[in-house]
Design a protein that fits this description.
It catalyses: (R)-pantoate + beta-alanine + ATP = (R)-pantothenate + AMP + diphosphate + H(+). This protein has 286 residues and is an alpha/beta fold. The chain folds into two domains: 171 residues, HUPs (Rossmann fold, 3-Layer(aba) Sandwich), CATH 3.40.50.620; 93 residues, Pantoate-beta-alanine ligase, C-terminal domain (Pantoate--beta-alanine Ligase, Chain: A,domain 2), CATH 3.30.1300.10. It is 37% helix and 20% strand. It is built from ten helices and nine strands. Bound molecules: pantoate. The site of pantoate has 10 residues, from strand 2 and helix 7.
């Protein structure tokens, strides 16, 4: 395993002439790595010859300075956690990624004002911009994204399609703690009590899923049910609850596979989670 800090060096190594047996699997991260990231790495390892992880806390995707400052920075532990499982760890500096004359950014269309886009203005533009840069530097065969950030996965998939980028975007099911809490770098900011409260979010999503599987027809009734359960959680502030198609289209009636997405503050920590619900009778959580 090698830690690479220079963008040029990373590009040179990654773009060495490759063949079908020398594929690259890429996992972009912002560090504070946990078992969810390890699941992405495991899948990349199975499907590619070489695995590259980037660690870059992207200032452009934070809505405000204080959120950026509070983001956990654990580079040494991160390297220790993943070094045996990857070929390269790319840790670029902000001034290499965004030199002084950097100007353009990606526009994310309908996602600008929807769900995460509504509550985190500029987030997806910043996220898509850095992901595009990283994909251009590394040119991986496959890039892996956790489905906990479901809308991010959809935005990146759309970007790759719209700009004819030759990388397959792979969504990896959410890894949960035994309690059901979706793993997230932000969980480290929860107190023990808040963590216990947060574990109930997934239980509420599972209840909603079974209501749908038992024949509920109206997405708005499900949204109301989930919101009413979430507001009962101590210290909670609900930002959104949405029942959408797998492509995140609004639904008038429940008629296709769908995803229920939520964003809720527990205390000071903003958590997002989701559950996929098949429209058929049987289906598995992710
Ligand atoms: O999901 C994340 O950690 C970030 O949004 C990503 C994809 C690494 C881009 O900065």
């Amino acid at each position: 395993m090698n830690v690479i800090k220079s963008l040029k060096e990373m590009a040179k190594i990654a773009q060495e002439p490759s063949n079908s047996k020398n594929t690259i699997g890429f996992i972009p991260t912002m560090g504070a790595l946990h078992n969810g990231h390890l699941a992405l790495i495991r899948q990349a390892r199975k499907e590619n010859k070489r695995v590259i992880v980037s660690i870059f806390i992207n200032p452009k995707q934070f809505t405000n300075e204080s959120d950026l400052m509070k983001y956990p920075r654990t580079i040494e532990q991160d390297v220790e956690l993943i070094q045996d499982f990857v070929d390269f760890i790319f840790i670029p500096s902000a001034c290499e990624i965004y030199p002084q004359d950097f100007q353009l950014s990606i526009s994310v269309g309908a996602h600008t004002h929807d769900l995460e886009g509504e509550f985190r203005p500029g987030h997806f533009e910043g996220m898509a911009t850095v992901v595009l840069k990283l994909l251009n530097i590394i040119r991986p065969d496959r890039a892996y994204f956790g489905l906990k950030d479901y809308q991010q996965f959809i935005v990146v998939s759309q970007m790759v399609k719209d700009f004819n980028i030759d990388t397959k975007i792979i969504g990896v099911p959410t890894i949960r703690e035994i309690s059901g809490l979706a793993m997230s770098s932000r969980n480290t900011r929860l107190s023990d009590k808040e963590k216990e409260i947060s574990t109930r979010i997934y239980g509420i999503l599972q209840k909603a899923k079974s209501v749908i599987l038992n024949g509920a027809q109206n997405p708005q009734d499900i949204e109301k049910f989930v919101a009413s359960e979430l507001v009962k959680l101590p210290k909670s502030k609900v930002e959104y609850v949405a029942v959408r198609s797998l492509q995140l289209a609004k639904m008038k009636v429940i008629e296709s596979d769908m995803v229920i997405l939520v964003a809720v503050y527990i205390g000071e920590v903003r958590l997002i989670d989701n559950i996929i619900v098949p429209s058929g009778i049987q289906g598995a959580d992710h």
